[in-house]
Records
---
Amino acid sequence: MRRNGWALVGVLAILALAGCGERQELETQAFVSVIGLDQGEQDHQVNVTFQISNPQVNTTQSAEAQKEPPSDIVTITAVDLLSAKELAQSSLSREITFSHLQTIIVGENLAKGDLFSHVIGSAIVDPEMRREAVLIVSKEPAEAFIHANTPTMETRPHKYYEFMEDNWRKTGFSPVSNLNTFFQRTEGELFLAAYATTERDSVGTKHDDEYLAGEVPQASGDPVQMIGSAIMQKGKMVGTLNGEETRISQLLRKKNLIETMTTTFPDPLNENYRISLIMNQSAHTEIKVNTDRTPVKIRVNVPVQVKVNSNIALEDFTTSQKRRDALKNTVKENMEQASDSLIKKLQEEYTGEPFVWYATARKNFWTVEEFEEFDWGEKFKKADVDIDYEVSIVSFGEQLRPPAFKKLKEGK
């Protein structure tokens, strides 16, 4: 028994120590936080840009790294992402790792071709490639975007993109898009990726959410603008949606990822002004799809709650039911008109929808094969879509009490 006991202790010790064989020190690793992908000069080649975080910046060791940049940026031309990762070791002393990778930026030129889906599809076999990584399409080459993105308030690249993703959930200007969702919708459904640029394209003044990245009239500040979305279908980019269309696309989904969003509508009591409202959803969007008729009938009910955020015209809505109804009808009519315009655009230009309505339609079929034969994309192009917004006003603002409105307007 004593001999067997010592043998058991020996086996357990070997098993415990064997786990240290693959141990790596943090100081020997180069942590890639951002990857950029661009079309190479030759066919079937890609330019891969690695943004490697400096772990000493903004840490307790920052005093030792005051003159060091927050990140190192290296671009390698190769046939795929993993080959570029290996080639990058020819100039980097530390071993590259994707364990902290959070963001993948794709240049629009590459995103519009067939090569992108092959490159990203082959790279996912690397166990370090995180499917939660955010996918962003840049108007310019991803390499130029990464070099130009030098935010003033945040030096750490991984934190910058993390904070931007949090902002998307609060504004809805960009979709919360990641690799996992991208791979789920590569068969034909439309997938929305965040759209960004550091370039400027002056188009004049629009309403607050009708801009696309690069169009927001910005005089100074950080160079990057992220608003709107890139439409991806079958693994490549086929178009764009502006900020308003992106917001509506998320509201029309069964489960909306936007927490709240601030937008403006025409003031129903004074056509010279617009009224600012904070909008969120009181419940999930209700979607019903009738596939037994031709054309397919789709009914969508969107419950929204609004709060008055800024009332520039100083109109009093609290003491008049008629005025409250006018405001409610204005929100309802404008949202339904904007939604109908988006549906028309998608039906005329694309074969598919980004609202995940196909998941509801699929429940009407016994097998996947039956649903595939149904050809949802083509059926959607001719579908009869009825969208109804249920608007409830929960607050008229707290800055001014109703009696103060009349005094201000009369100059008292």
---
Amino acid sequence: MLDPYQLTVHTLTLRQLGTASQLAEVTGQELADVEAGLEKAAADGAVVAAKDKYMISPAGRTLLDEVYPTAFGTFRSSPQIGEAMDAFETGVNKQVLALTTDWQTKEVGGERVPNDHGDADYDAAIVDKLARVHEKTARVLAPLSAEDPLVDRFLDRIGTALTRAEGGETDYVSGVRVDSVHTVWFQLHEHLLRLTGRERPE
């Protein structure tokens, strides 16, 4: 697995731009550890600082490309994890992408139009379907979460977003300014790809 410094740099591949506290929220690391990692990474040239926010640099990506094969060797050589990833890509990931499209648009008169979220029943049905896919995802990814607690953290954050969406905070389905289902799902997917050395499907 990654050491704390490497994990801090890795987090900037999941959240492309963020403050120390935002990065700590992604991984659950102590804020002081993230701040120390970012300070070292900035000095090393692995990250670029812009006021209080950070982004990964080409040198940081090179660093991760060099450490991933060793840090994640167990994941990349496991047939069970490979099967779980196949199930993730062909099943729940496609379902979440389709439901996100259904959330953002709806069919009216045979055409897709933007969803104005005026139909509460339509929206509630999609949130309910997302919740069922979330439960299934936990089962699909069990072989990975058994080895990496960060996978469960992503699933917990998705669950939190779903709870807020169920309470009427519709931005928590696909909003980009909050830790929505869609935003955290993207982070989860990117983390899984880096664990397993796979490319994001087109």
---
Amino acid sequence: MASTSKRKVVLITGATGGIGKATALAFAKEGCYDLALHYNSANEQTRNKLATEIKDVAESSSINFAFFQADLGNYDSVRQMHKQATCELGDIDILFNNAGSNGGQSGVQSLADVPIDVFEQSWRINTGSGILLAQLCLPHMEAQGWGRIIFDSSVAAFTGGVVGPHYASSKSAQHGFVHWLANNVAKKGVTVNAVAPALIGGTNMIGDASDEEAQKKIAQRIPVGRLGRPEEVAETVMWMVKVAYVTNKVIGVDGGYYPH
């Protein structure tokens, strides 16, 4: 097992969204991580706001972080983003594949309503790019005998969900990959897991849920009676990073929605 004294580098995809932002701040509070923060289309104002929040909560004034743009539907863009991040911050020790897309479609009522191209693009963004990043990051993790790979899945992978078949099928594909890879690298000091949130406030996956009345209706489906908070997903991710005996798991963060 390699020494754990050096600062670890964390790559978070979709870092400017609700869960990505909460997770970036959770790592910043620890003070021993440098952050490679991916974004697709977030404007400069959004990125600057997150940068200010990171500086405000960071335990260490020496924390390094930088933003890296990539279209996760384009594998060449993903490769370039990984290259830029490692050149600037160093090899990736922790990969949080958080970014996701509903393809602009939610509340789908018929399979016929989702073009096959939307399925393909959803898979690339939600699953394929995460697998590619795992391929790119694993050699360093295996060489040092320590690494963490975490996917942000969804309760939709268990239940079908409320977004649509393109989204649910892309998320369930993550689970099969997690199980295979976790077994493959378990003896190499690398853990592989996923979080599976239900309906989380501050995300854009649940259609018109920005409307207060719609949120109340959605919350009624959750046993605890409310939407989840991005910080609750972030804390689960941090637990997965810290506990080396947790691997090959898909942990629901869903307010009791799906018992398993």
